[in-house]
Structures
1.
Amino acid sequence: MTNPDSAEHHEWLTAERRRLFDFASAARGSEGGFGWLDEAGDPSPSRPVETWITARMTHVFSLAHLLGEPEAAELADHGIAALVDQLRDSEHGGWFTSTVDTTKGAYEHAFVVLATSSAAAAERPGAAELLTEALRTVESRFWDEQAGLGLESWDRAWTTTESYRGANSNMHLVEAMLAAGDVTGERIWHQRALRIAGTLIDEVARTHGWRLPEHFTPGWEPEPDYNSDRPHDPFRPHGTTVGHWLEWSRLLLQLEASLGEESPNWLISDARNLFEAAIQHGWHADGHPGFVYTLDWQDRPQVRERMHWVIAEAVLTAAALHRRTAEPYYQRWYATFWDFARTRHIDYGQGSWHHELTADGRPSTTVWAGKPDAYHAYQAALFPTLPLAPSAATALRPAPR
């Protein structure tokens, strides 16, 4: 059985990170940013440069630089340059969704914060200043102090905000706030992350039997029928998204470790409950191995495709729970999840991971085409080697000179 703390396993994780890095490096665009890679690792010319992909890749390459990966610093700098010159709105402030979409979303801004936090920890030129600007934008445009949650999106001039609230963007705001709080030393970001988690998980998810609603009205009332005609949406699918229960579970443990003695007791208990709900309702839910993408409100599989990001988050959550509790139960699940990833998702021929599979294990494209994202897989191959806190880039950065 895979031992998450063994030297042999850590050597395998190191090799997997390098393999992922080699594949992801091809995303560097000749005109700036990072492009969408197809199944073979070639950039897709029909797609624009997207902020979330450029930011995630910048985060990954910053971590790779901190790990001593040759050429990673140049790639991280390439990403920072795109976030400064190509994707930032120099007139109104903030970041565009892409080079062809001038709306401004909390999801994209969360990843800008994460990318600049990691790049600042890696001491990349201009990253610290860009992080300050990104945090100022999140605080002034997306943070709703009264609700203790984030708004979803705005038009370019910040005049109209969308009449929708989403759990997904707020989950990634938690991730970004933890990273930014660690890099800057400003505890307000950890406290805001706790407020988001307290509402969405300890209140909303708890009252729904740990089946977290993803879509809400502007007053934060769940909208269970949202996108009922778009079950395969990559960001806002109908129903419940099992992978997010796992991702939230990990983030709760990281939040607990970050807060230390100030952490409330519900963080660990909620993390356990979310993990168990994911196993009970999402694992082998249709009789085939793996986690289904979504469930309906009767816990029936709705979109049955297996996503690479879900099994990556399952790996990370089992590793985090094992680190927190030392219970063999979570080590067994950690080994099970890696076995699934190795035998199904990892593409040893063309590189990276298959982003989507059918229930019986064949590559599929109903939700995701190609392999645009190294973020989830790279973290799965790194975080099990690190403490739960501080966040990865802060844990890896060199001691102050």
Note: The radius of gyration is 19 Å.
2.
Amino acid sequence: MREVVFARTSGWIPTVIREDGVLTLMLAAGADANHDPRTFTFPIGDAHLAVIREDLARHLLLWSAVLPLCDAAGTRGRLDEDAAVALLDPVLLSPSADVDALFERIPWDRSRLVAHGADLFLLERGQHCAAMRSATETPDGRRAQEYSADRRRAGRGVVLGPLDTAILKFTGQHLHGATIPRRLPEAVDPALLPEVLRVIATAEQASSGMRIGRDPRRGERATDKREWDRVAEAVEAAMRGAHPGLVDDTVRTMSFLMCSEVADRTRNLPVEDDAVVPGEHSGARKTRLTFTDDKDVAKRWQQGDPRSADAEFWEFVGDRSAPDNEVFTIEDETMGEGIQLHFYADSIARVTTVHEGVGGAEPEYRVEYGLVDGTSGYRTVVSAFVRGGCAGLDQHGPWMSDAAELEHARRRRDAQ
């Protein structure tokens, strides 16, 4: 038979029940293997009940001290009742100084005390009983989250100023830095909002006119990492120059926000619009092309198809590219020329037929190699080939006739 003897308005604060005639403290903590809350109980005495009824602060301190024992029980283990019972007298019946000394020696759950109104200054000084004089039965979970986030930053040596805090709240990154940044002006103290907007304006000006295209090599929705890094570097440099008092966390948050917004402006554009299309080149514009990957899968395009050759090729790459499929080819069989894109090395080869094979002889090809500057570089050379063939690639060199020379050039570039 179970009877509730005493319960507070907040359902999570431990409840006193009488079970088979025995006074017991019952609390929910942790979860079982099915993610359902676990409930733990241990016996208490009449003197403990009297303090729990009359003294919210001591009740909350006991809860904070017992929770680590519940965590230690895990998803299936038993609560160490002896250890829980051993906390009753020291927490509920001892002088405040002894309670403070106890909390210096035992693990305790800080977030519960903070959520229920603990004075943070006194709590940090180890004056636990005094800190809980301001306790409330109704918890403020967000207060505890903000406190935990600031403690994690403090552990890295980061102390936020008022403007730092306001900016992180504006972007939604004050509590969780891994969330996607957004604009939440309502989360900021109105008195600080104008200053926050001035910082935002600095970042917007630094990233104005920049772009972050897509990188089909990494999937249909992936962004170009090099362009992302360029925007981030520009924003961070401007922020540090104009607002040197901001901490690194804030500066990185602003660059993250600007990069996300720049990328969003192009992410949903058609591939034709997202492509880098240079001016017309000399040579014949392609009318029929074959695209292939490193798995011998082919796709054909011809003039008159609903979409441009650039768009069809990059869609093919987005569909087929994978860690074990990083070499793609565009071939004009009629003209006897093509290009091969080596995504794993940021390089390209252009292949031109010098002599057709006659009488069973193998054709003779001229192969030239060049380095490519990331996704935007690949888009440029693909567009140039589609519009001007191998001749249209002359200005996108230098071109090397030896693979070993290409490798040396690649290593020199990567070492810079």
Note: Strands lie at 2-6, 15-19, 22-31, 37-43, 288-292, 298-302, 327-332, 337-342, 347-355, 364-371.
